[in-house]
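Suppose you are handed only these lines of text.
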Amino acid sequence: MLPAIHDSGTGEAVLFLHAFTLDASQWDHQVAALSDGMRCIRVDLWGCGASPPPPNGEPTLDGFAGAVLAALDSLKIDRVAVVGLSMGGYLAFALWRRAPERIRALVLCSTRAGADAAGFRDDRLEMAERVERERSVESIVEPMVARLLSPQAQAEAHIVDPVRGRIRRCTPAGIAFAQRAMAARPDSTALLASINVPTLVIAGTQDAITATPEVLAIADGIPQARAVELDCGHLSNLELPRTVSDALAAFFVPATMSS
Ligand code: MLT
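From them, the structure of the protein bound to D-malate can be written out as follows.
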């Protein structure tokens, strides 16, 4: 089943993959900044944004990665640059595992290569069961906001209110799918050395979900990677939209996009 696809602009294709509890609109600023010269493709995870509910069966990011590749096929797009933040980064690793020949460059923001520790996995499964039991995502809105955004961003209504809105647009089924799929994801550390495309890694120094050293370790493991540290929380592209859009524009120079 195809996810909802948002297709803006013309040029070389860039695929944007959103974080947990958000949706494709997380990337609005970057798409506005880049779509004059690039074709910006975004997908919503099943049960989030405009996507249909998750399909039956084992929830895996690998399964969703297959749906993302099918979405690219439906658009007749062969190769893309992939930009993923957090869960979007986990998905980028799943795409690399399945179809590295389709990826021409990578941007990995606030994400990690390792799998979850056991306690973390239990917390995910508990949240999945809770939202399904409550048939609502309301109980996770404020705890997620507190983890996703730095204290100063939480005080900025124009940043925090749209984040709350996006969380509320996720369905319990979408949240449960994402948490179970993230809990089941494999360790991607051994994959890093095989990533042979230009890669930009972006870390937030106030990230409460993914510690800066974990993010920077990705750049250490990928031969052609460079890293940028920004003074922000987990959602760097929403806290510092212009800085992240400029970093992407500079990274996607013709040299990165050729071949
Ligand atoms: C995300 O922002 O995508 C998630 O918080 C990542 C995670 O829970 O590991």
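What can we learn from it? Residues 19-20, 86-87, 182, 209, 234 surround D-malate (CB under 6 Å). Strands lie at 5-8, 12-17, 38-43, 80-85, 103-109, 199-204, 225-230.
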